[in-house]
Amino acid sequence: MTHRPALAALALVLCLSNGLTNAQTPAPCELPADFEPARLYGLWQLTLWPETGSPERPSSTGAVLFERHPEYAGGVRGRLKRSGPGNDREAVVSGDVADGEFNLDESANGVDLDAVWTGVPQACGNEFQGTRRPAEGRPSDEPTLQFLLKKASGWN
Q1: How far apart are the first and last CA of the chain?
Q2: Element at 22 (helix H, strand E)
Q3: 16 is a domain residue
Q4: N or C terminus of the chain: which is more exposed, having fewer CB within 10 Å?
Q5: Structural contact between residues 95 and 87, judged by C-beta atoms closer than 8 angstroms
Q6: Which CATH number is 50's domain given?
Q7: What is the CA angle 96-146-155, rounded to 5?
Q8: Each residue's pLDDT tens digit, 101-138
């Protein structure tokens, strides 16, 4: 009968240590199927690499600045600037996240579609990874690239 206080103390220690362990473990984030456009606003770091390559050896790097889309309440519009062979490249981009998929259209002149981007959110929506493909009818010398967009610190 002297074991009861020892068992109660052990049970208390186990309960407390389990509570501390749970308190230290961050809760997993849930990614909505459709992102509010405001979650995309801000500066994003861009890395592009060939399909057979890796992000550690990028073929191009740059940034994208997303803002409210002036005509489509459910999306974003922004400017992309990235390194390219010879000169830096700039483009207008528009897109959204719908049904869990990131979609982006890219246009160098703001009129003609040059590339389409499709990807998925990662890191609680602070990253997107996917594929950038030349738009249908564009020159075939433009390669398909993998991309990673990471939200710049201070924009969360």
Answers
A1: 57
A2: helix 3-24
A3: no
A4: N
A5: no
A6: 2.40.128.120
A7: 50
A8: 999 999 999 999 999 999 999 998 899 999 999 999 88
